[in-house]
Specification:
With about 210 residues, the chain is an alpha+beta fold. It has a single domain, classed as q2cbj1_9rhob like domain (Jelly Rolls, Sandwich). The protein contains three helices and 14 strands. The strands form three sheets. The protein has a seven-stranded antiparallel β-sheet with strand order 1-11-7-14-5-4-2. The longest helix is centred in the N-terminal third of the chain and has 13 residues. The radius of gyration is 17 Å and the shape is globular. The termini are far apart. About 30% of the residues are buried. The protein binds 2-oxoglutaric acid and fe (ii) ion (FE2).
């Protein structure tokens, strides 16, 4: 009798889904114009529920006000949720208000390995379930690096694996918020803000216990 195959779930990068050309050129240009117009309003990003700044773990800048683009973005992200939940084999859930933000990674920026689910904030009424990241940048592209590295639960030195996803212009990446991931360092020789690696982070949240 042959024995069943060993469990590989902990060694495999989390399931993920890529959608190229997600928003279209017109919306990408409107996003770039919004970033340019609001460049002075971007703030240093933080980590954890307490909002700590730690340049050893995370360097980037964030703008939470998406202005007149917010409503359309909300609708576009919501439109892919059910299909992503099915593809990624997540338990169906009722999404609350989406968490949306615009993040700029300039020269030397990165985000070390982490998960998006806040394990410490057990009192919060809702929690992140599904992470969506939409990438865009000006043309010609002024940076390199900045791959999204999606890890398995097990670290590499214990047989784990990872996959690197290129932050292509107008690419949407979806993965479960519990999956460990990191942003590899960005090189942006001009140092110009508009040459940054831009991304919209979108978190689909569910009411806890539902
Ligand atoms: O920009 C990315 O590729 C992912 C960003 C991220 O992991 C986060 O903000 O939690
Ligand atoms: Fe993340």
């Amino acid at each position: 009798m042959t024995s069943p195959p060993p469990m590989r779930a902990l060694e495999q990068p989390a399931p993920h889904r890529l959608i190229r050309g997600f928003l279209g050129e017109d919306m990408v240009e409107r996003l770039l114009a919004h970033a340019a117009a609001r460049r002075d309003d971007f703030e240093v990003t933080t980590i954890g529920a307490e909002g700590r700044v730690d340049p050893n773990i995370r360097v980037s800048r964030v703008l939470r006000d998406l202005g007149p683009l917010r409503e359309e973005l909300d609708a576009r992200f919501r439109a892919v949720m059910d299909e992503a939940v099915a593809t990624l084999r997540l338990s169906p859930f009722v999404s609350t208000r989406l968490e949306l933000e615009l993040v700029a990674h300039g020269d030397g920026a990165f985000y070390g390995r982490h998960i998006d689910t806040r394990t410490g904030a057990n009192d919060a009424a809702t929690e992140r379930v599904l992470t969506a990241v939409h990438y865009f940048h000006a043309l010609p592209k002024g940076f390199d690096g900045g791959e999204l590295r999606l890890h398995s639960f097990r670290p590499v030195d214990q047989g784990g694996r990872f996959v690197d996803i290129e932050p292509e212009r107008d690419l949407l990446l979806l993965f479960p918020s519990w999956a460990p991931h990191e942003v590899r360092p960005i090189r942006c020789p001009s140092g110009a803000f508009m040459d940054s690696r831009f991304a919209i982070n979108c978190w689909f949240r569910r009411a806890r216990g539902k």
